[in-house]
Amino acid sequence: MDAVLADADARPRDLAAIVAGLGPGPFTGLRVGLVTAATMGQVLGIPTYGVCSLDAIGYPAASGAPVLAASDARRKEIYWAVYDGAGQRTVGPEVSAPAVAAARARELGATIAVGDGAHRYAEVLDLPVRVEPRYPDATVLALLAAERIRAGASSERLTPLYLRRPDAVAATGRKPVLP
């Protein structure tokens, strides 16, 4: 964060708000990112705003026809949403096998796919894959929150979009340490 602020010739006190991608995404990475954003907002006394991370992929890809935005969810699944020609989310976010997402997206008229998940599963999706955007862009996240920021909207709780249970599970019993 220090490097990003230095590139902009800014300091933390110059920030007016914090915008964070809410996911969907992996449990630990999402949790760390959102806790960091919330902590910065609290320490600096500035509002925080959340945006669905898929919106930062689907919105800029809108070009008049519906688009499928997908990110890799691991376990041979994708996180996905469908956006209309104006970039507004019409379905999602959801998590499923790529074939299920592709079928639903085609039902909704999607003609292209974007995002890392689309690249990874291009053959299964059977939709043309646009090169960019592949990942959420911070500038697009800020753009999608800009109206709330300009309006001076109250700070939002940064609630992660978890679409499935985490891989880690609590131990159910003690393991013996002696033979």
Automatic annotation (TrEMBL):
<dbReference type="InterPro" id="IPR022496">
    <property type="entry name" value="T6A_TsaB"/>
</dbReference>
<dbReference type="InterPro" id="IPR000905">
    <property type="entry name" value="Gcp-like_dom"/>
</dbReference>
<feature type="domain" description="Gcp-like">
    <location>
        <begin position="2"/>
        <end position="101"/>
    </location>
</feature>
<protein>
    <recommendedName>
        <fullName>Gcp-like domain-containing protein</fullName>
    </recommendedName>
</protein>
<dbReference type="InterPro" id="IPR043129">
    <property type="entry name" value="ATPase_NBD"/>
</dbReference>
<dbReference type="Pfam" id="PF00814">
    <property type="entry name" value="TsaD"/>
</dbReference>
